[in-house]
Amino acid sequence: MKTALLLLVILAAATAPARALRCHVCSSATDCKKPQDCAASSRFCRTMTKKEPLSGNLVEKDCVDWCTPSQGQLSQVSGGSATTACCASDLCNAQSSGAAAHAPLASTALGLTLALGLLALILAPGL
């Protein structure tokens, strides 16, 4: 009975709704900061920076489901550049320099802990 109760508590904790990611969401010629709650499906905060000598700079920040970091040249003529930075923690896109993309570690650690707990219950039911 204790094992079944413990299993139910673990499953309830694992299926609890996750809190939404918070990112800065804005578009500006300078580094902007406007915190907002993201949609439940959003896993990354993205910062896209375009530096264009002829038309000026543009920094766009948003919430996205998927993100691929990149860095490149906009055009040979203008010498402009564009970068995309991705991160996966609350308000991590505060500065336009950005951080490398990484998986959310908290959910990975929770999953590993639950798996080890269930394995211990199966292998040692008398605990």
Automatic annotation (TrEMBL):
Protein's cellular compartments: Cell membrane; Membrane
Keyword Membrane: yes
GO biological process: lymphocyte differentiation
Entry membrane topology: Lipid-anchor; GPI-anchor
Keywords: Cell membrane, Glycoprotein, GPI-anchor, Lipoprotein, Membrane, Signal
PROSITE patterns in UniProt: LY6_UPAR (PS00983)
GO cellular component, one term: plasma membrane
Boundaries of every UPAR/Ly6 domain copy: 21-106
Main location: membrane
Stretch forming the signal peptide: 1-20
Domain of life: Eukaryota
SUPFAM superfamilies xrefs: Snake toxin-like (SSF57302)
Record protein name field: Lymphocyte antigen 6 family member D
Top-level taxonomy: Eukaryota, Metazoa, Chordata, Craniata, Vertebrata
